[in-house]
Amino acid sequence: MMRKTFLFLCSVLFALVAFSQTKNSLSVLYSPASNGIDIKNGWIGDMGYTGKGTSLIELRYSRPINSYFTIETGLQYTNNRIEMDYFPDGVTHYKNLEINMISIPISGNVTFLKYFFVETGPTFDFETNHSSSASANNQSGIGLALGLGGKYTFKRVTLIVNPFFQRHLLLSIQSGQTIQHLWQSGVKFGVGFNF
Q1: Is residue 188 a contact partner of residue 162, using CB atoms and an 8 Å limit?
Q2: Which of 11, 94, 109, 114 is within CB 3.0–4.6 Å of 119 for a Cys-Cys bond?
């Protein structure tokens, strides 16, 4: 048993050493972003949504394909605060909603003029706190992320400023008609470690 454990640890160590020769990057990003819910055209009702802000944190892995194109993926967590207003009896009522999501973005990143980049790709989204009594659609499904920004690298550290826009629930993993789409926009600030 001890020998198998030792061989396993040696294999993992060897794989990490080999992997570290490929100029990968691991970044942590944060954004206090804006948000909201768009209601699909044709919706008839007595309610609306006002975004009250998003806290976003992302762990991102980047692998360069060549000098200007990079594939990125990672894990993103967002806490979305939404205020819903509705008029069931002619008087405005308000309800605070919270939509927590875990997303897996997969994007292509094109670098230009050495310090700038544009990126886009799908996000695979999972709402973690949806309940049957929620007043908005479950946002689990496939969304789209767009971004552009700047980065500056010195030695093994990269500083990142990344304005972005994300829209969720473009394709739903649930049946039924989708009415509301959660979106976020803002600027991510981050630091990356190159290995």
Answers
A1: yes
A2: 109
